[in-house]
Amino acid sequence: MTRARASLGPVAWVRSAQAEDVGALGRVMLRGFTDAPSAPYDHDELDEDAERLGRDLLRGARIDGHLLLLTEVGATAVALARVSPRDLVCSRHVAQVALCVAPEWRGRGIGGATLREAQRRGFGELRIERLEMRVASDDAASARLAEGHGYRRERVERGALMTGGTVKDIWFYVRDR
Q: φ and ψ at 121, to 5 degrees?
């Protein structure tokens, strides 16, 4: 578990998600991903059952070998991160990073604290050599977060995301160890 002070003062604890966190994981996902520009789906497409969504996240992480982190301020779950390793690609271990911050906690350094821990553990424990992050072209805050944590924009995937009937480009960010 890592303790990090977010920019506006709250102490955020970032730790591995556990079985007892299924409800918290689901609630953060429902609140955070559904209104984010980078969300790969519309709110209507999500299962409203937070417990089931959290169970699915945790089960998927265990089955696929993903690192699933939960960030808390006090007893409140405020963010999550998933580091999803892929197959060996060109002799390099590569992982996709997904980050979700509850709307009421955005802009307070929570995303940065969560991303720093995901990077630290991805590069360390998982021995990842390259982290990738996809950001919707209209999600300026996520782009600033990625760039502020050492990611560089590598390419644009034109029309790769559809949310709310709108087609969006995806910026593909990478960070090497």
A: -75, -35
Contacts of 51 (CB under 8 A, 6+ apart): 22, 23, 26
The CATH fold of domain 2-176: Aminopeptidase (3.40.630)
Question: Do residues 93 and 132 make contact, with C-beta atoms less than 8 angstroms apart?
Answer: no
The two three-digit tokens of residue 75, written as one number: 């007893």
The answer to whether 126 touches 21, Cβ cutoff 8 Å, is no
**How far apart, in whole angstroms, are the C-alpha atoms of residue 123 and residue 18?**
21
Mean pLDDT of the chain: 85
DSSP 118-149: HHHHHHHTS--SEEEEEEETT-HHHHHHHHHT
Residues in the chain: 177
The pLDDT tens digits for 117-172 are 999 999 999 899 999 999 999 899 999 999 999 999 999 999 988 877 889 999 99
Cβ atoms within 10 Å, residue 137? 17
96, HSE (Cβ side, Cα atoms, 13 Å): 10
Total-model pTM: 0.83
Per domain, the residue ranges of the chain are: 2-176
| 3-class secondary-structure state, position 50 | helix
Beta strand 94-101 pairing with 2-5: unpaired
